[in-house]
Amino acid sequence: MDFISTRDTTRKAYTSAQVIKMGLAPDGGLFVPAQIPHLTQDDISALASRSYPERAAKILSLYLSDYSYDELLEDCKKAYCEQSFPGGAAPLCSVRDNIFSLELWHGPTAAFKDMALQIMPRLLSRALQKTGETKTALILVATSGDTGKAALEGYKDIPQVKIQVFYPSDGVSRVQKLQMATQTGKNVDVCAINGNFDDAQNGVKRIFANREMAQKLADKGFVLSSANSINWGRLAPQIAYYVSAYCDLLNTGEIRNGDLVDFCVPTGNFGNIFAAYLAKRMGLPVRKLICASNSNHILTDFFARGEYDRNRPFFLTMSPSMDILISSNLERLLYFAAGPQETAKLMEQLRSDGRYEVSTKTLESIRNDFSAYYADETETACTIKELFSNDHYLCDTHTGVAMCCACKYLAKEGAEIPLVVDSTASPYKFAADVLKSITGTSPSDPLSALDELSALSGTEIAYPLRGIGSREVRFTGSIDPSCMEDRVLAFAKND
Ligand SMILES: *Cc1c(COP(=O)(O)O)cnc(C)c1O
Known about the structure:
Layout: E1 3-5, H1 16-22, E2 31-33, H2 41-48, H3 52-63, H4 69-79, E3 92-96, E4 99-103, H5 113-117, H6 120-130, E5 136-142, H7 146-155, E6 161-168, H8 174-181, E7 188-193, H9 197-209, H10 211-219, E8 222-225, H11 232-251, E9 261-266, H12 271-282, E10 286-293, H13 298-305, E11 307-309, H14 330-353, E12 355-357, H15 360-369, E13 370-374, H16 377-391, H17 397-413, E14 419-423, H18 431-439, H19 446-457, E15 478-479, H20 484-491
Parallel strand pairs: 4-14, 5-6, 5-8, 6-7, 7-15, 9-10, 9-14, 10-13
Antiparallel strand pairs: 1-2, 3-4, 11-12
Helix pairs in contact: 1-6, 2-11, 3-4, 3-11, 11-12, 14-15, 16-17, 16-18, 18-19
The structure holds pyridoxal-5'-phosphate (PLP).
């Protein structure tokens, strides 16, 4: 299977190992598969009797053709092992009649980014070997919270890789700070920046753009690499859990092979829902993909009008991982709907004007596959409370947004087929807001919110967050953004 850039009309081909190592295409576009592989009904029946790692290895093998199935299976077994995912990799939970929750947060950081970041570092490590790279990859991450921790857990102790994470000292929650400061692993560094998220992000961008830094690092045997969500190595593993959810519905007799289902996905960068789109295009019987947004509903507006416009107010919500005005992975959908030439033009307009508009024909073709809704803060809190009181289902704030959007969709379309809602974080990851949504009052402090929520719901605190207040802190202090280069150079040594 070849990969090409979303903006390249010449369709220059790359292997999957190359695209996982490179991240972004040289022309600034994102890598997409040159064709979409097909999954037959027989393939799906065969996968239904398999474990999650086997299902994932099969899906990955259809795209990563320069990796052997055995290599992929070995990596999937390690990534999705019982120790890392004690509650199962992607269990499907019945919430009420015909509504199911696909719980993607049973991994080591209690959020769905683990589904990709537990496997992608292993794919990168192999990509370095396959492309004859002898240098060590140095992953730099600027984080406002969740991604940094998930990347640290994924890359720790992976061969030929080191990871360094920068976060704003005042821009992350107390729990998030503790999660990162207590990070284990020999090849990790965590560093607080005196400043906000933009300062951390700009520092990392500055280092990536600095040729002198690249040379200095190369002399020391290092090459910079990133872990962000536009990398194909993060996207591909996400296709697997849509197929897996379908298999689980087959196994419980909810559906027969070939029956249609709907998926509803809480969306930020458009990565997770784009993986669902690929599953649909591969032949998984899906009726609609429901794109769920919070008060930052730039995507809902896009699906309604065909206009993507960043020039709008930005809101901080209780579902922070969806507080996004640039949904980078939407570019991949534009490529499949409108082709590389049009995509390059629209992305240039986005860069220069902060907006673009797709043709009526493109919008119509997109609307065949997608529906879009949003939920504001009050609606989200109400949904969390109702699910808890009426259905005894406890969910986090991002899942709350998606559940609310799912209900809006059902009110319009009817509930005659199963609807699977992606649950992207453990309720304990956002315990204070979940508690407030249910009881109406804020807990006294963020750490006691964990115990209070456990007492209220009779459920156990997610394992990665248990006892977090008493773990050994390994990384203390903070530096000015201007000192980031020195910190990187000091970390770049092989021991
Ligand atoms: C990252 C994230 C999302 C958004 O996923 P995208 O792939 O960026 O659309 C939703 N919920 C949670 C909890 C997340 O961490």
